[in-house]
Input
Amino acid sequence: MVQVKFCENNFSHGTEEIVNKIENELNEVDVEVEPCLGYCGDCAVGPFALVDDELIQADTPDELFDKIKEQA
Output
């Protein structure tokens, strides 16, 4: 099972929608939301997530979802 972690502080970039989309559409993905993942520089720039502890970044939330889906 793939593990995806999101930072609550990154929700301002639209990642909260992606959390819900993953939970509804990708059964093989375990989603965690944490207060801070320690990637503050990346968090301030745009949407990101950790997929199996690997940093995944994108320009838009939808692009991030597609990248996560590729790895799931």
